[in-house]
Specification:
The protein has 472 residues and is of the alpha/beta class. It has 17 helices and eleven strands. It has a domain of 265 residues: Type I PLP-dependent aspartate aminotransferase-like (Major domain) (Aspartate Aminotransferase, domain 2, 3-Layer(aba) Sandwich). Bound molecules: pyridoxal-5'-phosphate.
Length: 472
């Protein structure tokens, strides 16, 4: 047999142990470093500069590469990271990712992921229970909120009594109703499903950016009168830009009265079902036909990891009723709970349940409550600081860890304020000590933080305001 020296090297387990120890030590040093007061959360380079760097990069070895990569990456563990809604991964969860990487069990069929399939079931059952679903409920895990929203809306479409779109294609005009503050993944899912521009009806929001229920009723009537069949109404829990929860009970009641599928996008805020203090924000969640929750947002796991939950498991079973003869025994999907590929978009799937499961079992379920309470509480603290500060203005009082605010100065008109805040945010990005983002609300430019990091303190928030004032 021919000898392949490189392959021998690649699979050598002594190398793995040595490289692994070095890598963990290096990442641990990085973690410690992120907590030092003088460190930056970000490292800003323009896209072309970054590309140029990597195009000309001389790879020497793993250690120097990781050093360089760390230097060129954004650091979510730095308490001055306050940007997008991506979790600050618990180190234990990072290590668990390593197990999935090593085992690489594909999970499409039971044989290719026995333990992970069963563990995923245990995780999904926990979420169903937390929501208040009964034994008829179940679900799956999938790669991110975007795919999860698509999966749920496909189930909604497949639950139509009048037509089997999966089998026969679409012969009716279909529509989804969602608030104008919803995450763009809903719009994208509807378009992927062939609903087009007119099939995504944006329901206006109230002054507090939650869905206006009277407007929902009117939108439904107008859409039906125009000859569209509404396949689902989507509630945001919470919406992305402002972190405001829709009135889920009111939407649920309306859906029930019209026999329409009720979907809740809880990618960010669904995790609040784990918190006694905040779960009232999700009142009515158990009425939903489907709910999605990302664990890589408010539940401390690395990306990607999302649960898609169905109130009636049969609806989730019907979504992809296509046969792949070489994979599945027969078509009795109902009985084959263990063949995950029958219910997910993915064929090969990462063993994503492990990172949540290990955190849960190691620290107890209370860890998720603590994280929500800490971060939502921090949002409130920051809002209070802004209210006290004469140079800043809140866009609205936050319900979560997402806070929208802006710098104000007497004598400046709206356009000048917009320009000023846009410039401030650009300066912050280039300065790189803090990482925050921005959003437009009712035509005005706001700075936006999502307080994802439990290590962020009031002192960091004060320093952020001080720096913004300086730049202003
Ligand atoms: C409300 C909401 N839904 C869906 C998504 C998309 O989730 P993912 O990034 O996991 O695809 C996001 C992302 O921020 C979100 O905020």
């Amino acid at each position: 047999m021919k000898y392949y020296p490189k392959l021998q090297q690649v699979y050598n387990f002594d190398n793995f142990e040595k490289q692994g120890k070095e890598l963990v030590a290096q990442l641990n040093a990085h973690l410690k470093n992120t907590q030092k007061p003088k460190t930056n959360a970000n490292h800003w380079l323009k896209p072309d500069e970054e590309l140029n760097y990597w195009q000309n990069y001389q790879f020497d070895n793993l250690t120097t590469f990781v050093d360089d990569l760390l230097q060129h990456s954004i650091h979510l563990h730095n308490p001055k990271y306050m940007g997008h809604q991506v979790s600050v991964p618990a180190p234990l969860s990072v290590l668990t990712n390593l197990i999935s990487g090593m085992l690489n069990n594909g999970m499409a069929v039971y044989e290719m992921g026995q333990a992970a399939t069963a563990i995923e079931r245990v995780v999904v059952e926990l979420f169903c229970q937390m929501i208040g679903y009964d034994d008829e409920a179940n679900g799956v895990m999938t790669s991110g909120g975007t795919l999860a929203n698509l999966t749920a809306l496909l189930a909604a479409r497949q639950s139509l009594k009048e037509q089997d779109v999966w089998q026969n294609g679409m012969n009716d005009k279909l529509a989804v109703l969602v608030s104008d503050q919803a995450h763009y993944s809903i719009d994208r899912a509807a378009r992927v499903m062939g609903l087009g521009n007119v099939g995504v009806v944006l329901v206006p929001t109230q002054d507090d950016f939650s869905m206006d229920i009277d407007a929902l009723k009117k939108s439904y009537q107008d859409t039906s009168d125009a000859g569209y069949k509404v396949i689902a109404i989507v509630g945001s829990a919470c919406s992305t830009a402002t972190g405001i929860y829709d009135d889920l009970t009111a939407i649920g009641d309306f859906c029930q009265s019209k026999d329409i599928w009720f979907h809740i996008d809880g990618a960010h805020g669904g995790a609040a079902v784990f918190s006694s203090q905040y779960k009232s924000l999700l009142k009515g969640i158990e009425m939903a036909d489907s709910v999605i929750i990302d664990t890589h947002k408010m539940m401390m796991t690395p990306a990607l990891s999302t649960v898609v939950l169905f109130k009636d498991k049969k609806t989730g079973n019907q979504t992809f009723h296509q046969k792949a003869q070489y994979l599945f025994e027969d078509n009795s999907i109902e009985e084959q709970w263990y063949n995950g590929g029958l219910r997910t978009f993915e064929c090969t799937k990462f063993m994503m349940c492990l990172k949540f499961y290990v955190l849960w079992k190691t620290y107890g379920i209370e860890i998720f409550e603590e994280n929500i309470d800490c971060l939502y509480g921090l949002g409130n603290t920051f809002a209070e600081m802004i209210i006290q500060h004469k140079d800043f203005e809140l866009a609205l009082h936050p319900q979560t860890n997402i806070v929208c605010f802006r710098y104000i100065r007497e004598g400046l008109n709206e356009q000048q304020l917009n320009e000023l805040n846009k410039t401030i945010r650009q300066k912050l990005l280039e300065d790189s000590e803090f990482y925050i983002v921005q959003t437009i609300l009712n035509g005005s430019h706001y700075l936006r933080v999502t307080l994802m990091n439990p290590m962020t303190t009031e002192a960091h928030l004060h320093n952020l305001l001080r720096k913004i004032s300086l730049f202003a």
